[in-house]
């Protein structure tokens, strides 16, 4: 699924005229939002094809207003914030996002219940044959949430809120990490060349699958991404404590 979404983004970029300045952040955001929404809900939403635009605009507006509220100190006070125009934007975007997710949740819950009933019968039969209880773990996020819902540990709103948080936070952080990494590669062509060579050595032709085992071999690219995170953390609220003296070139970080 991830490769399909990335291929779609590359295809859209290739349709642009040569020599035209492009804000890659827009394309990266649409791609990551498409991937995260699809992986979380198990529904191919096709955001990069221009579908469900109201949902996309609502997610973007929601992410923007969160940033604006953080940097506007008076809006930290709830009653002041509720009198602001941002609060109206928040309500509008939440209505659009929640309405979209509500439709997906209801659809997927019906499908989940049908599959769960059949799966329960299969598990009981296997348990009788093997004289043991067989545990089947769900692989999809929304199905895991439905499991908790069925057990009474979550309700409809809890499921929707979990999806909200995953989609909002995941799309924004992944987009900015990708954009900063591309910026660093553009600023350091010698590093970019090493990344290209590593990619070519792993993916020698189209027969090599783009999967977890292949990605694990991209050790240099991993270092580039981690260095980018160090220089441009997407969420700069991580503190590290030095527990032993560390020598960095001619400097020493003392405990």
TrEMBL record:
Gene3D superfamilies: Cytochrome P450. It is found in: Endoplasmic reticulum membrane; Microsome membrane. InterPro entries: Cyt_P450 (IPR001128), Cyt_P450_E_grp-I (IPR002401), Cyt_P450_sf (IPR036396), Cytochrome_P450_Monoox (IPR050196). It is a peripheral membrane protein. One of its GO terms (molecular function) is monooxygenase activity. GO terms for cellular component: endoplasmic reticulum membrane. Its cofactor is heme. Pfam families: p450 (PF00067). Keywords: Endoplasmic reticulum, Heme, Iron, Membrane, Metal-binding, Microsome, Monooxygenase, Oxidoreductase. May be involved in the metabolism of insect hormones and in the breakdown of synthetic insecticides. Belongs to the cytochrome P450 family. This is Uncharacterized protein. It comes from Phlebotomus papatasi (Sandfly). The lineage of its organism: Eukaryota, Metazoa, Ecdysozoa, Arthropoda, Hexapoda.
């Amino acid at each position: 699924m991830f490769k399909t979404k990335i291929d779609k983004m590359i295809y859209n970029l290739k349709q642009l005229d040569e020599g035209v300045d492009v804000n890659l952040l827009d394309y990266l955001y649409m791609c990551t939002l498409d991937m995260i929404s699809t992986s979380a809900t198990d529904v191919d939403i096709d955001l990069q094809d221009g579908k469900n635009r109201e949902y996309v605009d609502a997610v973007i507006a929601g992410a923007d207003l969160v940033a604006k509220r953080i940097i506007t100190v008076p809006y930290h006070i709830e009653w002041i914030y509720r009198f602001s125009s941002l609060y109206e934007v928040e309500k509008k975007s939440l209505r659009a996002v929640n309405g979209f997710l509500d439709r997906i949740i209801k659809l997927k819950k019906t499908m989940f219940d049908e599959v769960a009933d059949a799966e329960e019968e299969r598990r009981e039969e296997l348990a009788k044959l093997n004289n043991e209880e067989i545990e089947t773990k769900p692989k999809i996020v929304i199905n895991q949430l439905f499991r908790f819902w069925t057990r009474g540990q979550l309700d409809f709103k809890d499921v929707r809120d979990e999806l909200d948080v995953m989609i909002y936070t995941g799309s924004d952080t992944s987009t900015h990490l990708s954009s900063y990494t591309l910026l660093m590669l553009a600023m350091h062509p010698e590093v970019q060349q090493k990344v290209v060579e590593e990619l070519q050595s792993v993916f020698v032709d189209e027969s090599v699958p783009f999967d977890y085992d292949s990605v694990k071999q991209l050790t240099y690219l991993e270092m580039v991404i981690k260095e980018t995170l160090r220089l441009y953390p997407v969420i700069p609220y991580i503190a590290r404590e030095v527990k032993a003296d560390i020598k960095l070139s001619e400097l020493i970080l003392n405990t």
